[in-house]
Amino acid sequence: KEPAAAIVETLKDVSAHEGEDAVFECRLSRETTQDAQWFLGDVPLQSNEMNEIRVQGTRHSLVLRKVTLEDCGSISFKVGQHTSTA
């Protein structure tokens, strides 16, 4: 069983104008196969034409494309017992 990854670089608040992309990033203490999940409010996000979820080593990023007023709210990143919110 692998040790749990911790969040070492937390999410930062992002402001974007309607129609722009908003990018959120955080970094983990180690690469992990543990499930990492992004949320907008309480809604889990999937990678699709509106959201791009990327993992590059220990860096996890979320791109919300062409944001609208409906995208306003808290973004959370969860891995294991750790959560970061912006």
TrEMBL record:
PROSITE patterns from the UniProt entry: IG_LIKE (PS50835)
What Pfam families has UniProt attached to this entry? I-set
GO CC annotation, single: cytoplasm
* Key words of the record: Cytoplasm, Disulfide bond, Phosphoprotein
| Predominant place of localization | cytoplasm
Q: Could you tell me which residue ranges the Ig-like domain spans?
A: 3-86
Compartments reported by the entry: Cytoplasm
Q: Which domain of life is it from?
A: Eukaryota
**Where are the coiled-coil regions?**
none
**What is the name attached to this protein's record?**
OBSCN protein
Which gene carries the instructions for this protein?
Answer: Obscn_2
